[in-house]
């Protein structure tokens, strides 16, 4: 049984299924855009409670995706400790041991991906404007001191379908649109950063992510705000450290086998 679970054939089928389910997710996101946003903004258990009755198709898709990823985890685990370690011991070569270490780091990364879904605290769909603040978990204060949106504000006023058409690289310049966000704990400033889309504020286990810009009419003027998702996950630092080590190990392995091939 372990031999089957650790086989390359089993790994191949799992990877094909994983790619197919990810592709299905891209397709479903066109029809369930808001539901995917809610899923990203809440802990997965909380999302499952409401989604099962409202959008069961997404729950089934997510369950199949997790099953495929879980089987890939089992495959990598079995392969690493029944085959890769034996190959490394027999050969004694550095690149074989490095390949085994790379497998082990990949196992840890997969495990962290799963744990991050259910561990910690998450609060999404938070709307803040310039010079506004909010309390997170009764101990962290998030303050938005300034918001800059230099692109056409009419894009934010447009409907969802129009926004999809208008939000191109020519119309939206990610680095020119940002919010200055500060993180406090007990009146102590922990971090201040220019937060952009895909560039969150991180401090320890806390992460503040800018998910969207909005516009609101106030005193006959357009006022731009931001939507934030805040997470507190103790695995964040460990996950990114292991992920970085895995990338370095992969680079080291490629260099090692490249040099070895020239000898």
From TrEMBL:
Alphabetically ordered keywords of this record: Membrane, Transmembrane, Transmembrane helix
Which residue windows are transmembrane per the record?
Answer: 12-32, 52-77, 97-119, 237-259
Q: What is the name listed in the Swiss-Prot or TrEMBL entry for this protein?
A: ResB-like family protein
- Upper lineage ranks? Bacteria, Pseudomonadati, Thermodesulfobacteriota, Desulfobacteria, Desulfobacterales
